[in-house]
Amino acid sequence: MVQRKKQGAKTTLLNGITQTIRCLTLLILFIGQSATAESTQHFDTVKYTQVNHASLLILDRTSGRTHKVEISTSEPVFFGRLKLILKKALKNTPEFPPESVVYLEIFDKKPTEAAAETAEIKPRSEEPAFSGWMYASSPSINVFEHSVYNIKVAECF
Q1: What is the pLDDT of residues 63-93, one digit of tens each?
Q2: Do 136 and 89 share a structural domain?
Q3: 126, 91: one domain
Q4: Residues 89, 70: Cα–Cα separation, whole Å
Q5: Do 32 and 60 sit in the same domain of this protein?
Q6: Average pLDDT over residues 1-14
Q7: Which of 37, 63, 98, 113 has its CA 20 to 30 A from that of 125?
C-alpha cells in the first residue's frame, strides 16, 4: 500500500512537471512570434531618404591611424590601394533612431612590377573586392575583409 502511494505521488509529480513544460513551451512560442511580428513591422515602417554623400572611417592597420573620408555618388575616391565607389546612400527619417546605410563597391588595386617603375597602379581584377550594403549602427553585418584596411560607415548627409 505504501509502495502504491509513492508511485501515485511520483506520477502526479511527473504529470505536473509535464504540464508546466507544455505551458512554458507555448508561452515561449507565443512570445517569439509576437517579437518577430513587432520587429518585422518596425523594419517595414522605417523610412529612408536617399542622400548623395557619406562619411567613412578607414582604419589603416599598418599605421594604426583612422582616416575620415567623405565620398559622393558622383565620383570615386581613391584611398591607398583602394578605389571606393558609392552607389547609394540612405539616411532614415528623423522620427526613427539615427541610421545611415550605404551601398559600396570597393576595388583593391595592387602595384604591378612593371608599373612600379612608372608609379602606375593597375587593378588586381575587374571584379570588386567588396560590393554590398554597410550599416553605421551594425558594422559587423556586412564586413569588408582586407589585410590592411578596415572600413566603417560614419554617417550619410
Answers
A1: 999 999 999 999 999 999 999 999 999 999 8
A2: yes
A3: yes
A4: 12
A5: no
A6: 60
A7: 63
